[in-house]
Amino acid sequence: MNVIKDYRNWRNYRRTMNELKGLSDSTLKDIGVERGAIGEYARRVSGN
User: Fold this and answer.
1) Helix (H/G/I), strand (E/B), else coil: 30
2) pTM, to two decimals
3) How far is residue 13's CA from residue 32's CA, in Å, rounded to a whole number?
4) Up-side HSE of residue 22: CA atoms within 13 Å toward CB?
């Protein structure tokens, strides 16, 4: 069922976004993510 899969992907996306937004700029730099690219990164890793 795509609805369930889509919901899980959305939930993972939101969780990833919230976690990354809570990190400092230096921590994001350490893991290789720029603050402006958080949304793109979250979509990529959540399956969206």
Assistant:
1) helix
2) 0.81
3) 18
4) 6
